[in-house]
Write a structure and sequence with these properties.
Helix content is 32%, strand content 24%. With 279 residues, the chain is an alpha/beta fold. The protein has 2 domains: 3-102 and 157-274, Glutaconate Coenzyme A-transferase; 120-154, no CATH class. Helix 4 (83-91) links the parallel strand 4 (66-71) and strand 5. Helix 2 (32-40) packs across helix 10 (268-274). The model has no long low-confidence stretch (mean pLDDT 95).
Length: 279
């Protein structure tokens, strides 16, 4: 059952050096505050998993938290490259980074297989891409019924999945709505999970199209208003487009990046947010 705890306590309990960690959320509800707490706690040798690694993974990679990245697309959305990611690949700074690349469909199906307790998923994909020669967990198989050649992808079972959501109730049940990606599957596939939320309410109000994660599927819930910034949380905050533009310049320069970390992640404001205790 979910425990409602400060974010710092959730990360300390759930995420350990060497873990495979998935942080999901698409366009909005990206768990930036949780990623910053991982940086503050100086976790190392993580395998980071995300369908669309963007600014938060650029920050984690630049801070030296990552050993490997498993992904299907990477970039600063609407702006350009992830320069800390590029520096790690091209120059091994601050540490070398191994990559494992998949298609969007492949990653989504891998999460579904993990959530379903299956060893792999099957899809029509990857053929002709060359990805099977570059990345693990991809194999051609023959359908036993039709003889068709298909692609099998190994299940994703992260040690920890981290997501952001709009609400949880006082029992730890979680509800998110708007654009939903693979958060549900990623949580169900993981051994442990952390959900940061905008608000803790007495009871969840049903919403059309919402995803509800029962308390028994979640390990830790942490109250972190604004925890998706600079992405947005539908109904609570807006996307900070200026930050994404500014990040391009910040992330190009190692010293500028270090200065940003010192001020915005390691500084007092970041530490205070991670220690907030629900009323």
């Amino acid at each position: 059952m979910a425990e409602i705890v400060p974010l710092s306590a959730a990360v300390q309990s759930a995420i350990h050096d060497g873990d495979t960690v998935a942080m999901e959320g698409f366009t909005h509800l990206i768990p930036h505050a949780a990623g910053h707490e991982v940086i503050r706690q100086r976790r190392r040798d993580l395998t980071l998993v995300r369908m669309t690694p963007d600014v938060i993974y650029d920050q984690l990679i630049g801070a030296g938290c990552a050993r490997k990245l498993v992904f299907s697309w990477g970039g600063n959305p609407g702006v350009g490259s992830l320069h800390r990611f590029r520096d790690a690949i091209e120059n091994s700074w601050p540490v070398p980074l191994e990559v494992e690349e998949h298609s969007h469909a492949g990653m989504a199906n891998r999460y579904v297989a993990g959530a379903s307790g299956l060893p792999f998923a099957v899809l029509r994909g990857y053929r002709g891409t060359g990805l099977a020669a570059l990345s693990a967990g991809i194999a051609e198989i023959t359908c036993p019924f039709t003889g068709e050649r298909l692609t099998a992808v190994a299940a994703l079972r992260p040690d920890v999945t981290v997501i952001h959501a709009q609400q949880a109730d006082q029992a730890g049940n979680v509800q998110l709505w708007g654009i939903t990606g693979v958060q549900k599957e990623a949580v169900l596939a993981a051994s442990r999970s952390i959900v940061t939320v905008e608000e803790i309410v007495p009871a969840l109000r049903p919403r059309p199209g919402a995803v509800v994660l029962p308390a028994w599927t979640v390990s830790y819930v942490a109250l972190v208003p604004g925890g998706a910034h600079p992405s947005y949380a539908l109904g609570y905050s807006s996307r900070d487009n200026d930050f994404y533009l500014a990040w391009d310049a910040i992330s190009r320069d190692r010293d500028a990046f270090r200065g940003w970390l010192d001020e915005h992640v390691y500084g007092p404001a970041g530490r205070a947010a991670a220690s907030e205790v629900p009323a």
